[in-house]
Structure formats: structure tokens, C-alpha cells
């Protein structure tokens, strides 16, 4: 049996402190297009891919011809932050610590292209990141299991030998559907109860706490199989 194990990480709200930037820039994109969407609703939708986020907030009955303009507006607004995206304390250190213990590190994120490149620069741990399953690589984003499954494929491990760390209910649902161990962090602003209901097996304050508990948490436990 292979001894390989994969540590799969969401990025926005998990490794990089960007959720509220997404809230504001999506809110502004909707405002510019004439839509009144409460910020609290935008916050709950962060973590979905652009198409799914728009459908979740505006409904299937909307005119989808406006989706491209909304996504372009959000991207342009969010891109103004690319050179100063703030990684959470301990993010890069956690990835390096896990890699040093033999874990294969893969990212699973709805970000792609220049946005993903900016996020990876913020994390500053490309030397230990094998790759990323991004929005460019799957047909269905979270909460579908596709991004997590694709990340596992990159690492070459079955679901029982992978741990996924994320911050949204969409992350937890995707992880649960793929059968990997689901770990949630509260740094994205989603309540603990919601994360647990969505499938989180363990909840930490942030990645710094995950790092502090490497010797006693899920990363110290034996693989499921």
C-alpha cells in the first residue's frame, strides 16, 4: 500500500485573507450592474465559482447574458489588490511543515489564471506546492467534489489518504462528497455550526492553529485506508 498522503488546501479565506475583499468587489460589481445584493448574502456565497455565485445570488431566472459583464467587473475590481493580498499568519509555514513530514501539498480553489498566481505569490510556498486544481481544470466547482478529486489525482492518492482544509460550507460539502477528511478553519468568517453541518470533522480557528497542533490533530492521525 502506498504511503503517500495529500494535504489539500482551499486558498481564499483559508491560506489568504481575501474573503472580505471578494465580498466588497462582488457587491460593487452587482451594484454597477443595477443589482441590490446584501453583503451578508455575498459573503455566504464566497467560495463558489463565478457562474455559480451569480446564479446563487440572482437566481436561475436572471438574464444570463449579463454574467460575463459581472465576472469581468469583479475581476477588474479584485485585481487592484493583486500586489498586496495578505496571507494568513502561518500559512506558508504550515505548508512547509507538512511537506517536511512527507505530505504532498496541493491547492483546490475556484481561483484561476492571474488571480491564482497572485494568491500563490502571497502564500510564498511554491517550493512545496505540487500543483493546483483550479477553476480552469474542472467542469464543476465546489460544492461539487470535482476540485478536491482533481487535487487528489494530482497527488496520486485515494480519498482515504487525503485531508482537505477549507473555510466555507462549499469546501466542506465538496470534501465530504469526495470522502476525504474535512478540516474547517473559521478565518473565512463562516460560523462553526454551519461548517460542521456541511461536513467538517474538525474545526480550527485558523491555519496558525492547525500548525500549532500538527502533533495532535488530524495530520498526526493514521490514514483511513
TrEMBL record:
GO terms for molecular function: phosphoglycolate phosphatase activity. SUPFAM superfamilies: HAD-like. GO terms for cellular component: cytosol. The keyword Hydrolase applies. It comes from the Bacteria. Gene3D superfamilies: HAD superfamily/HAD-like, Putative phosphatase, domain 2. Keywords: Hydrolase. Pfam families: Hydrolase. GO terms for biological process: DNA repair. PANTHER family: BLL8046 PROTEIN, PHOSPHOGLYCOLATE PHOSPHATASE. This is HAD family hydrolase. It comes from Streptomyces mangrovisoli. The lineage of its organism: Bacteria, Bacillati, Actinomycetota, Actinomycetes, Kitasatosporales.
